[in-house]
Amino acid sequence: MNQIAELKEKTKTLTLLYVEDDPASREQISVILEMFFGTLTVAEDGCEGWECYQKSDFDLVITDINMPCMSGIELTQKIKSLNPLQKVVIVSAHDSGDYLLSAIRAGVDNFILKPVEMEQFEGVIKKVATAIHNEKLHQHYQNELEREVTSKTQELMQQAVTDDLTGLYNRKMLTMKLEKYGVKVLMLLNIDNFDNINATYGYGNGDLIMQKIAHFLKAHLHPSATLFRLGHDEFAFLFTTVKLGEAEAYARELQHLISQKPITHEAITVKFTATVVLAEGEKDLLKDVHIAFKEARAIGKNRIGVYRHDSGLERRQKEIQQSMHILIDALEKRMVVPYFQPIINNQTRRVEKYECLARIIHDGKVLTPGFFIETAELTGVLPEITRLMIEKSFEYFKNRTEEFSINISEHDLNDSYLDAFLEENIVRYGIDPSRVVLEVLEGLSAHGAEKSFDQLSAFKARGFQLAIDDFGAQNSNFERVHRLKVDYIKIDGSFIKQIDQDLNSYRVAKTITDFSKSIGAKVVAEYVHSEAVLQKVVELGIDYSQGFYFAEPSAEIEGEEL
User: Fold this and answer.
1) 89-132 pLDDT tens trace
2) Which terminus of the chain is less hemmed in, N or C, by CB atoms within 10 Å?
């Protein structure tokens, strides 16, 4: 390709404004320019050139320097003030320094001298056209990059607010929508027992079934609702123009449709139900529907629930939040202390042992476990309470002779600290392990991990005594209780409190007593609160009694005999 053809290739798509007041020069140069530029606009002076420039976009402006009405320098200044990036070439017969300096100050990009020589013309046009081409190419790449960034940003934003499995809006989008509107209604729908579907048919089939459930919900969506998938088996419906009563009516209708419409995938047919709850308000609706859901599930599945501001669960949550601050403060200040309740030998009526019960001293008040134990479990600090109870109880009994029992939870056994901690306090306070009874709840003997069972067996081998507390309240594993070789079984207080009036309680207590004696364990009756109850306990041959009939838990032991 020769040089002219190469130049034409670069200029054929460019638009040019040519301004020249001399007719002869204008005609001569226009012929040349038409050879190269695809679009040519010609103006006869600077004023006409300025009018043309304001009406159209041009890639290049070529203008004479000396013209009536407006000179090429003035035209260039106006053009550059409007578009500083515009390419402008001056054509002039003057080559003096003053003219060139004025043109440079005006911002021209190049010069063509009269009379126009083809070689010089081609060189200037080639240089300017190459600069324009490069700038257009750069702008093209910049635009493409911006479009790609915009597209990817939109795609990522869509992914951020969309559930991958169902294509529905997700929790993040729901949160954004909840912040946008004033009073609205939020409905939470939970598929009952969906874990069973995953376990039976596999997670792959479970995902496909969940997609079909989402499709079903979209097909039956209330016209005023927006549907979201919050994760796993939870969906949410947001109503912004509907009151609670209408939304609740829709919820009942949808729940009925769900129970009547099986979902089919290949050879799998699944009939399912859903628990649906609703809340209305301006804020905290996600919290409110989850409170309503917990309350509904406490009753059963396939339920409809509506959040009420006097919710018992919400009150309980506030109580837990309050107790949490008190509990953490008590642990930091070591204000968890043991209170001692005597355990009475039913034959001799003498105190033979004590149970150490945790209490918190706060603002001069004594707080019982009913106030803080649930919070301690939820926050994971139950082992810290046990440590303080072991340490303070060992210190208290170091100069006494009675046996004493300390409650041990599965949290303590899971943390695997007890062996070393008990040994440390045995040495520090000179306590014989045989005086220490480790009490564990019945559920641990039935469902506790084998690791926990092994620890209890090791404590037994070390010389500690073992007791099963609240026996009969759950489903005990009798074989494991027997294998542990427990020393004491404490009958749950629910069977003792009414034993003098309720025949079933009497029969259960008798069964537990007979079982305990068959494995060589002593029996303790808790919640003995009257002489009539005590007489029934003695009649059954129960070895020990514990309860308010004898004494309430106390911070100090006053005597050994009652």
Assistant:
1) 988 776 556 666 777 787 888 888 877 778 888 888 888 888 88
2) N
| Distance of alpha carbon 16 from alpha carbon 13, whole angstroms | 10
Q: Strand, helix or coil at 230? A: strand
List C-alpha distances in Å: 214 to 160, 162, 207, 223, 290.
Answer: 19, 13, 10, 16, 20
Residue written as token pair 């079934």: 209
Q: Which residue has the tokens 């109880």?
A: 393
The pair of structure tokens assigned to 525 is 């009756």
The runs of H, that is alpha helices, within 410-467 are 410-415, 418-429, 442-447, 450-462
**β-pairing, 304-306 with 336-345?**
unpaired
pLDDT tens digits along 173-229: 999 999 888 889 999 999 998 888 888 888 889 899 999 999 999 999 999 999 999
CB 344 within 8 A of CB 546: yes
Residues 419/433, Cβ–Cβ less than 8 Å: no
Residues contacting 129, CB < 8 A, separation 6+: 7, 10, 11, 14, 60
pTM: 0.54
Q: Taking Cα atoms as reference points, which of 244, 254, 245, 246 lies closest to residue 275?
A: 254
CA 366 to chain centre: 37
Q: How far is CA 453 from CA 30, 99, 447, 464, in A?
A: 103, 103, 10, 14
Q: Cα(5)–Cα(36) distance, rounded to whole angstroms? A: 9
User: What gap in Å lies between CA 110 and CA 93, rounded to an integer?
Assistant: 14
Q: Among 87, 98, 96, which Cα is nearest to 124's?
A: 87
Q: What is the DSSP letter of 434?
A: G
Question: Is residue 489 within 8 Å of 516, Cβ to Cβ?
Answer: yes
CA atoms within 13 A on the CB side of 100: 8
Quote the Cα angle for 158-164-167, to 5°.
70
Distance of alpha carbon 474 from alpha carbon 27, whole angstroms? 109
Q: Give the pair of three-digit tokens for residue 286.
A: 């996600």
